[in-house]
Design brief:
mainly alpha, 3 helices
């Protein structure tokens, strides 16, 4: 029996490029409110896939869409504001 751990470098060579850089992690952190808002919208839409949406479902989806739009607006304003001032947040 051969252990794959001994052959791991042959199977999946390790590279420093596999991990996200600090700059990429900062961008992900900035976009996290938008990502979470999109997940909430997706959850609301998934709940209505197997049944006819009720008025409550319609409201839930509408509120989730509004949160996505607000998160997009906030992200765009944050990025635009930081670029206008000459620095990146």
């Amino acid at each position: 029996m051969e252990f794959i751990a001994a052959l791991q470098n042959l199977v999946t060579p390790w590279s420093d490029g596999l991990e996200p850089s600090d700059a990429e992690l900062d961008v992900i952190e900035q976009e996290m409110p938008l990502i979470l808002a999109r997940v909430d919208l997706l959850d609301a839409q998934i709940m209505t896939l197997d049944r006819t949406p009720t008025e409550v479902d319609d409201r839930r989806i509408r509120r989730a869409r509004n949160r996505v739009l607000a998160a997009r607006r906030d992200l765009a304003n944050r990025i635009t504001g930081s670029m206008v001032s000459g620095e990146r947040a």
